[in-house]
Design goal:
The complex is a heterodimer of chains A (114) and B (108). Chain A has 114 residues and is mainly β. Chain A has no helices and eleven strands. In chain A, strands 2, 4, 5, 6, 9, 10 and 11 form a seven-stranded mixed beta sheet that branches. A four-stranded antiparallel beta sheet of chain A has the order 1-3-8-7, with no helix packed on it. Chain B is mainly beta and 108 residues long. Helix content of chain B is 0%, strand content 57%. Chain B has strands at 4-7, 10-14, 19-25, 31-37, 43-48, 52-56, 59-64, 69-74, 83-90, 97-98, 102-107. In chain B, the strands form two sheets. In chain B, strands 2, 4, 5, 9, 10 and 11 form a six-stranded mixed beta sheet that branches. In chain B, strands 1-3-8-7-6 form a five-stranded antiparallel beta sheet, with no helix packed on it. In chain B, strand 6 (52-56) and strand 7 form a beta hairpin. Classes of the chains: A mainly beta (114), B mainly beta (108). Chain A binds chain B through residues 2, 31, 33, 35, 37, 41-45, 48, 55-56, 58, 88, 90, 97-98, 100-101, 103-105, 107-108, 110, and chain B through 4, 31, 33, 35, 40-45, 48, 86, 88, 90, 93-101.
Amino acid sequence: ETGVTQSPTHLIKTRGQQVTLRCSSQSGHNTVSWYQQALGQGPQFIFQYYREEENGRGNFPPRFSGLQFPNYSSELNVNALELDDSALYLCASTLGVGRTDTQYFGPGTRLTVL
Amino acid sequence: GIQVEQSPPDLILQEGANSTLRCNFSDSVNNLQWFHQNPWGQLINLFYIPSGTKQNGRLSATTVATERYSLLYISSSQTTDSGVYFCAVTNYGQNFVFGPGTRLSVLP
């Protein structure tokens, strides 16, 4: 039990639609990172939010966007869904920027794009 | 950016056997962690080990930072050890770079 929750657990969308995934961090954790894990691969960093501002981004297009709220929850939004967006999406929270040593992962949301 | 390799990609063991998983990385790191991902997708921290040796029950890990590799040892494997093992590093940045994983299957 990591104290990080994600919703929904599973989601099915069609190509071109938009999706919002949610993450609730551990209380007090002011940094949240999002990762995309395609089938059979390791997770890849999408972006990180620190105190409600984007604080770094991986190699993902602008149609991947996020929000972080003062209550330690956050969202990942993906517009204009493509088939290759089908993946497990993981969020991870930590106290303080750059503190990957205490980064805890949620159980993930499995997105299928048809 | 930093590259992370893991070997072997797949491993099948009989219950009770021992195994060694390897992680190689291409640059200096300030953080290295081993994770176990269960069949439901949950990533569980096993070790925070940027250098040195640690043990936790049947699991132990060693990182030789100067030679840019880390090893995860699993002794007396159990069926519950099945899943994917990831090595993840941080190169003085804010995010993990994950390896491709080793898929372990422990047969009863």
